[in-house]
Amino acid sequence: MMNELHPLTKAIIAGQRKEIASLIQQCLAAGEKAGDIVEKRLVPGMMEVGERFKRNEIFVPDMLIAGRAMKEALKILEPLLVEAGVKPEYRAVIGTVEGDLHDIGKNLVAMMWKGANIEVIDLGVNVPPAKVVAAIQQHNPQLVGLSTLLTTTMPAMRDTVKAIRDAGLAVKVVVGGAPTTMEFAKEIGADGYSPDAGSAVDAAMALLQGGK
Amino acid sequence: MNDFPAIPLLEHRPYDRIRELYLLQEPTLLAAIRRGDRGEARRIINHVLVHIYSAGEERSDLLKGLLLELVVMISRAAVEAGALQSDVLGMNFRSLTELAVISDDEDLAAWLRKTLEHVISTIEKQKDFTPPLLVGKALGFMRQNLHRDISRDEVARHAGISPSHFSRLLKERTGRSFTELLRQCRLDMACDFLLRTEKSLAEIAADCGFCDQAYFTRVFRDVKNVTPRQFREANKAEHGNTKQTHRITRPRDGKMAACFHDE
Question: What's the complex ipTM?
Fold first, then answer.
């Protein structure tokens, strides 16, 4: 880090949820716009957390508390963002595939995407292919994230990608989770692959910005 | 790394599965810590943590229990890998007390970070530690093969460690280089033969891996300040007083065995 980080950015990185409200009030009092606070204070914080996670410098709970601090910040800023008509540029639907009840990996990715200013619609865990397709049709996202932690649910991931393709939906699909590999992602027809939550933003951005 | 065959079997027993998952990863984890690759160690631990946090997310008591178990499992591995029990256990007691009063996610994350980094450090500190067994194995192999030309690389290979690591280890444990130690072993065996057998000097030189009697005598004199013959004469008297003399013979498998013969 070249520059001294803003206290709000630091608080996000350190996951200091209780500090968030007063730091945001300070920013607002200083005349910063809600959209700028997200873009210049919060997003760089989550980016840094993602980088540290990717570099294997931090543990899962460190990332979780950062995500919660981010969530707290967005909760405060959301009404102001709506009021100002600021909308995230991209929208994503995310969930764990049918049969998989582990949501931490998926939650981390959702956090990272929100942190990258992507609107995230979280379908939760154990999502059947039909429900993913329905959600895509309803929300019209540019991106779908599918997660699995178990080898046993990898076929469900294949089925889900197939259902999306069969429905003819123009959406980029990123898959990830412990048992998945780049080869597997290609084989089942996904557009992108992310081995961990830290790389999920890179994978998403590569598709969103490069694949238009 | 990408395949955990135990998982489907244990699916309905979620906590066994986490334990199983950790144990599958443990050798890789220890190897990573030993080579000083803390990043890889964290990556492996994070993999287990994803499972733990998925299982215990909504229940902080369960989460704390699972995290504590993980710490205990890694600590056990640390002790097995040669970390000082006092270091690891002292830390565990302290951690346990601290963990009991934690009620906040941020404090829990900080606790886990501190505790895991500490355990990793206790293993790292022992990076150069190799169980005495290994040096013992190497020395045993050397002693069994003194009669022939043996190289450092061969002994290291036999002990299953790299030649350079082996050299460092020997220096640490015995204060000597491989060559010095080998010569010492050869001379020790020669002394034994001189006192306890009637073998000729030429035979002893050959049995102890010296190329000829002249060289044997020279080395012997350099180290002991007497010739082998003088050594035998001077010390034989004492040994001669005993009712028994025991002769050392080397059976075909190369193992040394002390055989007692009634005179």
Answer: 0.78
